[in-house]
Amino acid sequence: MIRDAVLRLDPSAAVLMSTHLLLVKLCLQAKAYSYALPVLNKHVYHFPTLPEWSHSEASMACAEDASSRSFVTGISGFSSKLTYQDYLRYFLYGGMIFMALKKWHNALHFLGTVVSMPTANSVSLIMVEAYKKWVLVGLLEKGKLCSPPNITATHVVRIYQSLARPYVSLAQTFERGDLARLKSEVNAAKDIWCKDNNFGLVSQVVDVFFSRSVIKLGRTFAALTVADLVKQALSSPVEGSVAESAVSSLVMAGALDASLAETKDPDGLSILRFTGDSSFPRLPHELDVQSQLKGEQQLMEHLVGNLEEINTALGMSDECLDGLQRGQAWAASGGVNSAAPGETGTLEMDEDLMGDMS
Amino acid sequence: MELPPLTMEQLSMLVASNSPPSQLFEALTEYEQEACLMTETGGKKEVIRGDIQLLSLFYSSFFFVHLLTDQVPEARALTKRMPKSLTQQDIALQNCMTLLRAVWQTEHGQVYQILRGSPWPERLQPLIKRYESFFQDKTLISVSRSYETIRLPVAAGYLGLDQQLVEQEDPNIIANFTNCGWKWDPDTKLLHPKPIMVRPAATQPNNGIREAMGMLGSRAS
After folding, report:
1. CB proximity under 8 Å: A 42-101 to B
2. What pLDDT is recorded for position B133?
3. Of B73, B203, B219, which is closest to A102 when you measure between CB atoms?
4. Whether A105 and A160 share a structural domain
5. Which helix (H) or strand (E) holds B151?
6. Looking at the complex, does the CB of residue A12 fall below 8 Å from at least one CB of chain B?
7. Is residue A348 situated within a structural domain?
8. CB distance from A8 to chain B under 8 Å?
9. Prediction ipTM score
């Protein structure tokens, strides 16, 4: 009902409201993860504008040409006041829902938003929690310790690394490809994982170790028998049929870009051929990529539309208009006369800073 | 969409209908709220107020519809939302849990065994048959894309075909594969799969995007 209310009020769900947070929190508590997806799958582009930032009269929700940003404002009553922590919580909870559904790529996107949230001095504990999960989800999705998004401040990254040391250490061991060491680290810090409610994720990290090792082997070998593959990936003996079943599951699930070739001997193990060098038709894979590209294209179109809207809003803001006015006044007094028409905006803003000093 | 109240007749009709899985999923999602209200939870105590058989059929049908729409993690989440007191005593729901484990671990043989050999309520049979067929098709597509060559017993095992007929190299069994364009080499006794292409459903831009693009167009002009 809450989800339907959110989507009925704002079908684009582009403005974050307090109801968004309520929805994801309830879905997590009720373990009804997929109920939140219609809202989580829509990108948030705006936060409700504060009354002092509203420059035009709020549009009616029924106005066809109005974007939700114009009627979901701080004073419209559609959303209660959101705090900084609320923003963080929405993206953290959203990430947790995607984790529960094993949509690691989306989870990483949501966690990345929390991890890279701008901060003044201190770092919120919610951000640290998100970073711990970010490390684990990064291992599950990409098989490596992912650096926080580029826009994250360096002092914040340092704080993360010191507060989430066991996670970073676990990820480094995973990257080194030492299964025995990985298992011992998991057991040694079990209390930490349980206390942070991350034990489930850590267990999955151990489970994906084999598939990640096999993917790495694909960078070195063109083809391997399953027996050799297991020897290389795990360095411990595994029964032939178990190995065969594990490898075929990986290939059939699409986790491995490879194909299997069985021999006529029923006791003979299959050969795994990494698809990069194979003549095996890749059309199905290419169709999937094509479909993904189409999805990305639609997303970009939507993003461009919203960026234009934000650009217009910023251009109409008091700060921008004041700046332009001051710049024009300064230019009229003979400060700048040589700039090309297209460059005036930037130059005027720079010179204006110096004007304030005089 | 306004649905009639959740009753045994309504649910049986829905389960037996030939509606696409996505429509079934939507309808049962709507009904979950009603099903939730049939269980009262106070502290650690849980009391089922409604018809137990109806609840059992609802949750088992919803479980199968999750599998039919290829939402395995969501199906797992559903098993956590089922009333505990019901799952402990209801055989159909216990079978659902066993099936989920087999699907999760990609134990193809076990999946067919549970679908064909476990006791399921009569009213659920249409969904079980649909899922078996769906699982076979999905597996066939995966095998065709993953194997360059495959032995007949292995391929037949993936599809849950009769192993006795496989040993006799029954032409009908081989035809299951050659009809899909695969080649059978009687000398090496190997099948050469031909990848089965499934064009991903075209994702139409939704109304919001169309409206947004329309607005952009009108602003530019």
Report:
1. 65, 67, 100-101
2. 95
3. B73
4. yes
5. strand B147-151
6. yes
7. no
8. no
9. 0.78
